[in-house]
Amino acid sequence: MTHSVGSSSELANSADSGAQMVPAHVAIIMDGNGRWARSRGKPRSDGHRAGTDNVRRVIEKFAEFGVSYLTLFAFSTENWARPTNEVEVLLDILREVIGREAQLLHEQGVRIRHVGRLDRLSPQLREAILESVELTKDNGGLTLNVAFDYGGRAEILNAVKRILESGVTPGEVTEDLFRQYLYTAETPDPDLIIRTSGEMRLSNFLLWQSAYAEYYTTPAYWPDFDEREVVRALEAYGNRRRRFGRVTADSSP
Asked: In the Cβ-directed half-sphere of 93, how many Cα atoms lie within 13 Å?
């Protein structure tokens, strides 16, 4: 499902505005916090804080363009292997951000959902996440999926285990049924996946869901991914032709 750009003058004024479309679901691999800090002679923790400070303006910009779902890759299952001090800083920052931003996002009508594991987080952090989800569960604006302690392979394995535990027979397993056991069961597959800092890999993010997603990468580090970068990403998406394996009338021979 896609939505026309509508009232946004920034995309409407582009050269190919007639073809511009806005994705219903955008997912972002927020990369480059550490390199952003290093390029400025600052500790990595400053980069992570700058990255979290950037989240709300990005949410607001995508919501302005009519994006319905935004998934942010905040902490992967592999990130536990980072130095202990850095992991502790990341967890502390998340707790601070939830305390600072949940009420503001709630007032803007944003619905917050957690995607990933909760059992490895501290009781305080787990409670803060669940409280933000509960606070915003009935909101009708943009849905913000925060992928924290998330890994695509772990998600698929978890889905398989839950299906087996449910007693589902092999003949009953379909793509639609399998999707119901994923962390993202209530969210449509992403139309656009963005990765910042110029990297060109998925890094175990939404492996099942991204089968037909469009990809966009920018050299901008995540703290520098501003409103202009949002517009560039949406313009690039709007100029794509999504065929989902089919041949369309305007396809090249």
From this structure: 21
Give Cα separations from 42 to 49, 141, 219 (angstroms).
11, 36, 20
What's the pTM value of the predicted model, to 2 decimals? 0.88
Q: At 154, list the tokens.
A: 């772990």
* 3-class secondary-structure state, position 59: helix
Q: What is the four-CA torsion angle of 195, 198, 204, 206, rounded to 10 degrees?
A: 20
Nearest to 212 by CA among 187, 184, 190, 240: 190
Residues annotated as part of the active site: 31, 79
Q: What is the CATH number of domain 24-151+191-238?
A: 3.40.1180.10
The domain segmentation of the chain, as residue ranges, is 24-151+191-238
- Compute the average pLDDT of residues 167-178: 96
Question: 93-96: long-range contacts at Cβ-Cβ below 8 A with a sequence spacing of 24 or more?
Answer: 93/45, 93/48, 93/49, 93/52, 94/52, 94/125, 94/148, 95/124, 95/125, 95/128, 96/52
**Whole-angstrom distance, CA of residue 234 vs CA of residue 194:** 10
The label of the residue with tokens 């059992």 reads: 119
Predicted confidence (pLDDT) per residue in 107-135, tens digit: 999 999 999 999 999 999 999 999 999 99
Q: Per-residue pLDDT tens for 16-57?
A: 443 358 999 999 999 999 999 999 999 999 999 999 999 999
